[in-house]
Specification:
The complex is a heterodimer. Chain A has one domain. Helix content of chain A is about 65%, strand content about 0%. Chain A is built from 12 helices and no strands. By secondary structure, chain B is mostly helical. Chain B has one domain. In chain B, helix 4 packs parallel to helix 8 and helix 8 packs antiparallel against helix 12. The chains are: A mainly alpha, B mainly alpha. At the A-B interface, helix 2, helix 3 and helix 9 of A face helix 2, helix 10 and helix 11 of B.
């Protein structure tokens, strides 16, 4: 019997993947990426600690700014956009946590590169979903990062504990803070993944990526609390999803978002998240239709 | 003199080669310029927002909006020059040590420090020099035409400004050469760029703001007298913008110290560089 006459029917049918199988695959992906990430832990911890250095400059800059308006410290401290001097420092520290969740270095450019170089076809052949795979690797990377970064973070926050004037927030607020961090991670992931999918339509996305990153850096509140913006600009920025990447979790923790509005705000964030999940899926499916792979 | 002319010619060749390389990928070059300019625009936006809320940086320092933007322009001038001429080379140097490529640099009949300092020119970073120029022109115009306390810098201060701008670049260069020379002993200095960014971050603001408290005073001392990066931008910016703090007694001491430290820095970095070359053991190939 020649090979040409083999019909598909002669192969045993693939078993339908059960949840157990899927889970085994996910677990394997997670474990591999975790191992990969923990190789350079010393360098990692030191690098994380160094990343706090610019905050020292920020402390002095903001003290000087508050000092020249009125009083940086004392019983009746000056406020800028609802933030006192100490809040401002606490804010920068908290955005470091928020960014540790929401920043996705290399995700969009990685996807675009995989599309350009044809690596995507791997996911067309193997029974593994590209987005799911990337999400799991990212989760693993983040977990490995937190496992090591928790020590430098705890150290810096301990040193800076006096800047958190109001202490720990109430339990519901703290839960909302954690929720906003997790959603921030997911929004960051699906936002960047969607941008990466643009690679199906344009081969070179690095410049577009840069522009978006620039906007995201400015409008996420990484540079300054968004409430400092003029009223007219702020009302526009509040409608954009960027604020969930840095400003929103920090503002929750510091109690800058009134508790009665918290639930609504969280729902809006969830809606944005859903939007990006759907958009990312949609772009992937449409993109695959355009995609053509050549060679081996 | 002949020797000097020869080095000048070599440098021109380096600069030309780099330009040719940049122009091969013209679109990429334009994008690099645009991205540096975008970063600049973002920073300017940030400071404009700060000055929406305050009149000056620091109580009684005199760094009001127009003067502070002159300060920013100075930062941009110096950083862009350093990033155009020295940054790409310093990064290359640590890589050369790791890979053993330094062997070839040592063999060339030219001063090694010269060769590894000027080999590459990143022309796209010069776009920020022009951005700094624009910021300087606008703030000088505003400073001269405002109603309260208008000021036009004298010819002498402009000349001194240019001199100390060069001094600032040289101090930065010395620090950078010393930093990258350490990669001979460390084997690899991948975080050089990060470290550089964190250090120069301190130089981006008026030095007075650090001069307070149990954390600030030591920092102020360290970065003024030991690793004098606070002088880099502050001294020329104070000369040109003449904020209140620069008119107080003793402020001129920093100017003298900046000049002295430039000379010390150049000699110290030269010494450390040569010292590091002696420890270079090449890499097996």
């Amino acid at each position: 019997m020649s090979a040409a006459s083999v019909s598909p029917q002669q192969y045993p049918p693939l078993p339908t993947p059960t949840f157990g199988h899927r889970f085994a695959v996910w677990w394997m992906i997670l474990k591999t990426s975790l191992g990969e990430r923990l190789v350079y832990r010393g360098d990692f911890a030191l690098g994380t600690l160094m990343r706090f250095l610019p905050i020292i400059t920020q402390i002095f800059l903001w003290y000087a700014v508050f000092d020249s308006i009125g009083a940086a410290e004392g019983d009746n401290p000056t406020e800028i956009g609802g933030f006192r001097f100490r809040d401002m420092v606490a804010y920068y520290l908290l955005t470091m946590i928020a960014r540790a969740f929401s920043s996705m270095p290399g995700l969009a450019s990685g996807i675009a590169q995989q599309i350009r170089e044809g690596e995507v076809k791997r996911f067309l052949i193997q029974p593994i979903d590209l987005i799911g795979f990337l999400l799991l690797t990212r989760v693993a990377h983040k977990l490995a990062y937190y496992a090591i970064a928790v020590a430098p973070f705890a150290f810096v926050f301990f040193l800076a504990r006096d800047y958190f004037v109001d202490g720990w927030p109430s339990l519901p607020v703290f839960i909302a803070f954690c929720g906003s961090l997790v959603m921030g991670f997911l929004i960051g992931f699906f936002l960047e993944a969607t941008i990466g999918m643009i690679g199906f339509w344009f081969l070179e996305v690095s410049s577009l990526l840069f522009v978006i990153m620039l906007f995201s850096f400015f409008l996420s509140g990484h540079m300054f609390p968004l409430t400092m913006l003029p009223e007219s600009v702020l009302s526009v920025v509040n409608f954009l999803p960027f604020k969930y990447l840095a400003y929103f979790p920090a503002a929750i923790f510091l109690g800058k978002i009134p508790e009665e509005e918290l639930a609504t705000e969280m729902w809006i964030e969830a809606a944005w998240l859903t939007f990006f999940i759907v958009l990312c899926r949609f772009a992937y499916v449409r993109g695959l239709k355009r995609y053509s792979g050549f060679g081996g | 003199m002949d020797e000097l002319r020869r080095y000048g010619r070599v440098f021109l060749t380096f600069a030309r080669n780099s330009l040719v390389r940049d122009m091969t990928f013209r679109m990429n070059f334009v994008l690099q310029c645009v991205s540096s300019l975008g970063w600049t625009a973002m920073n300017v936006g940030f400071y404009l927002i700060i000055f929406e809320h305050t009149g000056s940086i620091g109580e009684g320092t005199g760094w009001d909006r127009d003067r502070f933007f002159l300060f920013i322009a100075t930062t941009w001038f110096i950083n862009s020059l350093v990033q155009t001429f020295f940054m790409p080379n310093a990064q290359e140097f640590s890589e050369m040590i790791r890979t053993g490529g330094l062997d070839f640099a040592l063999l060339k009949p030219i001063d090694t420090q010269f060769l590894i300092s000027f080999y590459k020119v990143d022309w796209s970073q010069l776009s920020n020099f022009f951005a700094g120029g624009l910021i300087a022109i606008v703030s000088l115009w505003n400073l001269a035409h405002r109603e309260v306390d208008p000021m036009v810098p004298s010819a002498l201060s402009v000349v001194l400004y240019l001199v100390f701008l060069v001094c600032g670049v040289l101090i930065m260069y010395s620090v950078m050469i010393m930093l990258s020379a350490t990669s001979v002993w460390l084997g690899r200095n991948q975080s050089l760029y990060n470290f550089w960014f964190y250090i120069t971050n301190f130089s981006r603001y008026p030095m007075e703001i650090y001069d307070r408290g149990y954390l600030g005073k030591p920092l102020f001392g360290l970065f003024t007298f030991v690793v004098p990066i606070l002088l880099v931008v502050n001294v020329p910016a104070r000369i040109l913008a003449a904020p209140l703090v620069a008119r107080q007694g003793g402020a001129n001491l920093y100017v003298v110290w900046a000049a002295v430290t430039t000379v010390i820095g150049l000699f110290a970095s030269r010494w450390l560089f040569r010292k590091s070359l002696l420890s270079y053991r090449s890499a097996s190939s």
